[in-house]
Write a structure and sequence with these properties.
The chain is of the alpha/beta class and about 425 residues long. Helix content is about 30%, strand content about 20%. It has twelve helices and 20 strands. Strands 9-7-5-2-10-1-11-15-19-20 form a ten-stranded mixed beta sheet, with helices on both faces. Strands 14, 16, 17 and 18 form a four-stranded mixed beta sheet that branches. Helix 2 packs parallel to helix 6, helix 3 packs across helix 4 and helix 5 crosses helix 6. The model has no long low-confidence stretch (mean pLDDT about 95). It binds guanosine-5'-diphosphate and magnesium ion (MG). Magnesium ion binds next to loops.
């Protein structure tokens, strides 16, 4: 069984929380795109964990965790993340963590380039997290990337690094920054690359074997459909493919077909960073929702922009992900509202539409907001029939609006705080 767990919205839908819950039936968990530019928060009986690079399955002692070829990995960050978890008693060994030899190394000069570019843009920022993600993906496609496998061959690595650093210095000095020293770069690689070298392996062969043995494999996305490099709100997107159909490619089994795609959809909207966010709330209304939902970035601590559930955006997200079913998260957060705003359509140049637009049309879209009845407390409910009628009405309304059934409803951050809708 091959399942993908993916985001329907702008990210931070609670994917980490749902992977932590649903991973119990899976022997292998794979991350297939992105780097440490986003964060998953997982709260279970072992405590609260924030993961940027490691698959959420790392918190289950029996699962094997894969970091696929579609990822960009900063070894320094990874060493820090592994250290924080091992300090808290989580065992991480080459048996339960496998890094693809084909994954790309995110280098200190990628971070530098990211920072220099955001500074150059001054007030026209694209909301980069300054972790070097866009520059490292750009270099991957320029074929100037350093792959994990290079770390295992110091001789050829040295030559490669010297060539690439010389090329990178054309860019760096263009920003009026001092050139990068290849020796320093090599020392950094030796230190942090050396620490993760034992985990680097032929992930593709491993996954092939795992499939032949009939193991269940789960793919975990970072960010949501609206941040996909092709289908998202370009250029305010991530630099990778966040969609489910890319999961087998980015993990290392391009020939495989998914059996099941679970879309994680939030009961309201949040968005980190810049870009069009049509139904955005402001002022006191936004403040209350942000407080109620604890909407501050897991990777950056930045306050998240918030808004009501957005039907055009979520319906588009469901379609792009090809979701078979949905997990609706953070329903409990809306308990304080007497009436719940929902963005039911956009108005563009006076014309109402429920299709999600791109480019300039998206920038001109205005939200059409309607209200649903509030439902009060739901956090203690564990069966669908326990939910107040107005809460069931809200869920069934959203199902119909986005055209996909809701299978799970999350009513709290803890592992057991959810309802399965049969
Ligand atoms: P991800 O990036 O999609 O994994 O999501 P994040 O971890 O960045 O953001 C989701 C936040 O909401 C985390 O702090 C979770 O602990 C929390 N969370 C997840 N599901 C629920 C829920 O149903 N109710 C509440 N109140 N919090 C939740
Ligand atoms: Mg997140």
């Amino acid at each position: 069984m091959l399942t993908a767990i993916v985001g329907i919205n702008w990210g931070d839908e609670g994917k980490g929380r749902m992977v932590d819950l649903l991973s119990s039936g899976y022997e292998v968990i794979c991350r297939y795109q992105g780097g440490n530019n986003a964060g998953h928060t997982v709260i279970n009986e072992r405590g609260k964990f924030i993961l940027n690079l490691l698959p959420s399955g790392i918190l289950r002692p029996t699962t094997v965790n894969v970091m696929g070829n579609g990822m960009v990995i900063d070894p320094e960050h990874l060493v820090g993340e592994i250290g924080k978890l091992t300090d808290r008693g989580i065992e991480i060994t080459p048996k339960n963590l496998k890094i693809s030899e084909k994954a790309i190394v995110c280098m200190p000069y990628h971070r530098l380039q990211d920072v220099m570019e955001e500074e150059r843009l001054a007030d026209k920022k694209y909301g980069s997290t300054r972790r070097g993600i866009a520059p490292v993906y750009a270099d991957k496609y320029m074929k100037k990337g350093i792959r994990m496998e290079d770390l295992l061959h110091p001789g050829t690595l040295k030559e490669k690094v010297c060539d690439i650093v010389a090329w990178k210095n054309i860019t760096v000095t263009g920003y009026h920054h001092a050139p990068i020293d290849p020796e320093e770069t090599l020392a950094w690689l030796e230190k942090f690359g050396g620490a993760i070298a034992p985990y680097i392996t032929d992930v593709s062969a491993y996954l092939d074997e795992a499939m032949a043995e009939g193991k269940n494999i789960l793919f975990e996305a970072q960010l949501g459909a609206l941040r996909d490099i092709d289908f998202g709100i370009y250029p305010y997107t991530s630099s990778s493919t966040t969609l489910a159909s890319y999961a087998p490619i980015g993990a290392g089994i391009p020939g495989a077909r998914l059996d099941n795609t679970v879309g994680i959809m939030k009961a309201y909207s949040t968005c980190v960073g810049e870009g069009p966010f049509t139904a955005e709330l402001f002022g006191e209304e936004a403040e209350r929702l942000r407080e109620a939902g604890g909407e501050y970035g897991a990777a950056t601590g930045r306050p998240r922009r918030v808004g009501p559930f957005d039907i055009p955006a979520s319906r588009y997200g469901v379609r792009m992900q090809g979701a078979d079913c949905l997990a609706l998260t953070k329903l409990d957060v809306l308990s304080y509202l007497e009436k719940i705003p929902v963005c039911v359509a956009y108005e563009i140049d006076g014309v109402r539409t429920t299709e999600f637009p791109t480019g300039d049309r998206l920038l001109r879209a205005k939200p059409v907001v309607e209200y649903r009845e509030g439902f009060g407390e739901v956090s203690a409910c564990r069966r669908y029939e326990d939910l107040p009628a107005a809460a069931r009405d809200y869920i069934e309304y959203l199902e119909a609006a986005v055209g996909c059934p809701v299978r799970y409803i999350s009513v709290g951050a803890g592992r057991e705080e959810y309802i399965e809708k049969k």
